[in-house]
UniProtKB/TrEMBL annotation:
Lineage: Eukaryota, Metazoa, Ecdysozoa, Arthropoda, Chelicerata
Superkingdom, taxonomy of origin: Eukaryota
Membrane-spanning parts: 48-70, 82-98, 150-168
GO molecular function: diacylglycerol cholinephosphotransferase activity; ethanolaminephosphotransferase activity
Record keywords, A-Z: Membrane, Transferase, Transmembrane, Transmembrane helix
Gene of this entry: cept1
Keyword Transmembrane helix assigned: yes
Subcellular location: Membrane
One annotated Gene Ontology cellular component of this protein: endoplasmic reticulum membrane
The protein, known as: Uncharacterized protein
One GO term of the biological process aspect: phosphatidylethanolamine biosynthetic process
Family assignment from sequence similarity: Belongs to the CDP-alcohol phosphatidyltransferase class-I family.
InterPro entries named among the record's database cross-references: CDP-OH_P_trans, CDP-OH_PTrfase_TM_dom, CDP_ALCOHOL_P_TRANSF_CS, CHOPT
């Protein structure tokens, strides 16, 4: 059976969908600190750079850097090289920056659309799987996606500098 749009959505729902406008809340702890950087960064991007290209590039970077880390430790039992952690940290930072700027670029170039927003969020979902950020899909208010991404970036850098055994260090021995 073939469905038409009227089988799925009413005319009123289709009208509301076409009128949809994205509203970013940016209500986390780190977003206000990073907004000046992202606002500066988007002004350095060429106007011909398509926002969806930024979105897919960030996703590809996340997938590639994560797969490199998995290659060196497929069962999380081996010590990957330090550079692999740094690569993941850098890749996640690039992804985060592109993700924060793709919508700004779309508005800057007059190319924003509900489909572009859907594409962005779809790529975000795939990226989340690759960097094990399922917790970020929950709404924690002041601690949300940006803070989780920065935490993972810091974890990669710490692993690169001190090795993965740093996570086995007992800090509060009275709790064990």
């Amino acid at each position: 059976m073939i469905f038409s749009s009227s089988d799925i959505m009413t005319p009123l729902q289709l009208k509301k969908l076409s009128e949809h406008k994205y509203n970013s809340c940016g209500n986390t702890l780190l977003d206000p600190l990073l907004q000046p950087f992202w606002n500066w960064l988007v002004t350095k991007l060429p106007l011909w750079l398509a926002p969806n290209l930024m979105t897919i590039s960030g996703l590809i970077i996340t997938i590639v850097t994560t797969l490199i880390l998995v290659y060196y430790s497929p069962d999380a039992q081996q010590e990957p090289p330090s550079w692999a952690f740094l690569l993941c940290a850098a890749g996640l930072f690039v992804y985060q920056s592109l993700d924060a700027c793709d919508g700004k670029q779309a508005r800057r170039t007059g190319s924003s659309s509900p489909l572009g927003e859907l594409f962005d969020h779809g790529c975000d979902s795939i990226s989340t799987v690759f960097v094990s950020l399922g917790i970020c899909s929950l709404r924690f208010g002041k601690f949300d996606v940006t803070e989780c991404q920065c935490t993972i970036i810091i974890a990669h850098v710490i692993s690169a500098v001190f090795g993965t055994n740093v996570w086995l260090t007992k800090v509060l021995t009275f709790l064990s």
